[in-house]
């Protein structure tokens, strides 16, 4: 395990945080009652980290070779991605926390650097919020920094730091600091209902703080290689049955959220509806290009217009978030300060009406899924599942103009775009930018294989909110491991050794993992390796050149060694490879 951070560890941290937030998103949304009970904190945090992950991936790819990306470039890419993609109050604060951390980690990636990073992050977040309130994400960030200070001070003397013996923590002093920060944040989160009345009345902990605990748990796991011990902590409170009775602590549970999302939402509902009536009507968010001296004036103007003001960023680029009754005035203030863009205005009443439990309405008629696919069989399969396929023509993937035309042709105000292979991802991203300029809301899910697209379509629900649908589809795609079989055209070096022309290659998650003599042998080895990590369903997509008995023989192999795993076969018709494999 690393004793200093490097770009690979930062990338692992970001990916782990994204997966953990994907799992916790619904519960975090359900306990979101402050500053506005709009039920989207978990979704906003997920989308903010997703933007950070995409920016970091782009920097990693641009470096040209694993290990070439310097740590300063990695943390700056992470912070920049979070800044430009920040959503909501919590996402904006998280972006500032990551920016504060990046400024210190760019200088040093050891335990002292991480301690300084957490301290600077907390200070930067407090400065970004116009009127800081304790019992929120800010309190949790400060507690994490305090715990990191204590941990590093204890390391040289081998004194247990905040309940953690440093010598027992993988990753050395760096791991000790990360683990202590997570533990301190979790303890602070459990105390938030006693600091903020709206949380105590609703019987929940702070949603933004809960998300920050998830991010810090991911950091600890990335450094140590082990998920941190959640430990017992009171994280939810139950209301007394009679009106006016005192609130009491519920049974303690692991520091992830207690109870189902529906149960917590039900407890929070009375307070939530009251707050929606009392607060400002609109949430306004935009990116702003402006000099620093203009931002001070902007803060004062927006502070006079509304509340929940958070302005984060620097070096000429800012992310502005505010709740107001006059959305136009908030945007005009940005125009006077500089150049606002990516402007998003949300009416809180609309947000409440479009929560996941609601269905039907205009959203059912306003959303489409567009997918880039190869092969007539896959095109038919995607169309049957409700997507609009954009097929390969004459062995060539469609360009950005073709994809953009397909998105426009869908005639929807909201579009989910599935590239379904690495080769189409850049073209799909360019197409999305083109169509966004036309006023269409487009979300690109970075599916790397057609089997990931199939998994995403399986959970697609056009009746729920767009962001929630995108998050669910992204999580389903990300949880699907993929592989493909191909035949080597010439001798070459691979991750699995030297292959000869005619060898069958088994590629798992894009890398050659197996070199075999035929499709059945190689496919069986690939399936065994993928299922060794667990799985409930195998999807086999047969290419145009696949032998007639390939699917039956591989299905029999799965059944003989993995009795509880189902196997589904689809005729894909793709020409580039004889078999695609997905494991969910």
From TrEMBL:
One Pfam family in the UniProt entry: Dak2
SUPFAM superfamilies: DhaL-like
Domain of life: Bacteria
PROSITE patterns: DHAL
Any one GO biological process: glycerol metabolic process
Molecular function in Gene Ontology: glycerone kinase activity
InterPro entries reported for this sequence: DegV_domain_contain (IPR050270), DhaL_dom (IPR004007), DhaL_dom_sf (IPR036117), FakA-like_C (IPR033470), FakA-like_M (IPR048394), YloV-like (IPR019986)
Domain DhaL: 8-221
NCBIfam families (alphabetical): YloV
Protein name: DAK2 domain-containing protein
């Amino acid at each position: 395990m690393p004793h200093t951070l490097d770009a690979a560890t930062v990338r692992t941290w970001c990916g782990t945080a994204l997966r953990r937030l994907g799992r916790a998103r619904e519960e975090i949304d359900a306990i979101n009652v402050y500053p506005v009970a709009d039920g989207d904190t978990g979704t906003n945090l997920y989308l903010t980290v997703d933007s950070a992950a995409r920016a970091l991936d782009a920097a990693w790819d641009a470096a040209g070779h694993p290990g070439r990306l310097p740590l300063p470039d990695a943390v700056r890419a992470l912070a920049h991605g979070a800044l430009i993609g920040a959503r909501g109050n919590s996402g904006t604060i998280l972006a500032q926390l990551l920016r504060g951390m990046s400024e210190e980690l760019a200088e040093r990636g050891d335990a002292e650097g991480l301690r300084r990073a957490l301290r600077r992050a907390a200070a930067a977040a407090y400065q970004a919020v116009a009127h800081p309130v304790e019992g929120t994400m800010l309190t949790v960030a400060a507690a994490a920094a305090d715990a990191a200070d204590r941990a590093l001070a204890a390391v040289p003397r081998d004194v247990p730091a905040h309940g953690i013996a440093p010598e027992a923590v993988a990753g050395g002093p760096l791991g000790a600091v990360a683990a202590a920060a997570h533990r301190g944040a979790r303890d602070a989160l459990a105390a938030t209902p006693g600091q903020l009345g709206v949380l105590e009345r609703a019987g929940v902990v702070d949603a933004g703080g809960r998300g920050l605990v998830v991010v810090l748990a991911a950091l600890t796991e990335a450094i140590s290689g082990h998920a941190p011990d959640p430990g017992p902590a009171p994280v939810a409170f139950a209301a007394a049955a009679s009106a006016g009775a005192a609130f009491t602590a519920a049974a303690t549970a692991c520091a992830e959220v207690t109870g189902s999302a529906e149960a917590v939402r039900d407890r929070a509902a009375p307070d939530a509806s009251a707050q929606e009536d009392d607060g400002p009507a609109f949430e306004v968010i935009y990116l702003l290009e402006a000099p620093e001296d203009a931002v001070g004036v902007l803060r004062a103007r927006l502070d006079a217009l509304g509340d929940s003001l958070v302005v984060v960023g620097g070096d000429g680029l800012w992310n502005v978030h505010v709740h107001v009754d006059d959305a136009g005035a908030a945007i005009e203030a940005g125009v006077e300060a500089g150049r606002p863009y990516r402007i998003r205005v949300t009416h809180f009443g609309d947000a409440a009406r479009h929560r996941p439990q609601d269905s039907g309405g205009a959203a059912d008629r306003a959303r489409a899924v567009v997918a880039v696919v190869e092969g007539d069989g896959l095109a038919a399969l995607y169309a049957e599942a409700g997507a609009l396929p954009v097929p390969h023509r004459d062995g060539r993937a469609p360009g950005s103009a073709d994809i953009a035309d397909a998105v426009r042709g869908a005639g929807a105000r909201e579009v989910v775009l599935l590239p379904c292979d690495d080769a189409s991802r850049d073209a799909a991203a360019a197409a999305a930018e083109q169509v966004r300029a036309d006023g269409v809301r487009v979300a690109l899910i970075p599916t790397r294989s057609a089997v990931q697209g199939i998994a995403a379509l399986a959970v697609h629900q056009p009746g729920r909110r767009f962001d929630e649908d995108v998050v669910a589809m992204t999580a389903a795609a990300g949880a699907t491991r993929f592989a493909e079989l191909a035949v080597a055209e010439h001798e070459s070096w691979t991750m699995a050794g030297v292959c000869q022309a005619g060898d069958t290659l088994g590629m798992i998650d894009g890398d050659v993992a197996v070199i075999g003599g035929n499709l059945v042998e190689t496919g069986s080895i690939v399936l065994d390796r993928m299922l060794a990590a667990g799985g409930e369903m195998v999807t086999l997509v047969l290419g145009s050149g696949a032998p007639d008995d390939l699917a039956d023989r591989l299905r029999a192999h799965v059944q003989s060694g993995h009795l509880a795993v189902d196997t589904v076969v689809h005729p894909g018709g793709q020409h580039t490879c004889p078999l695609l494999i997905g494991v969910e």
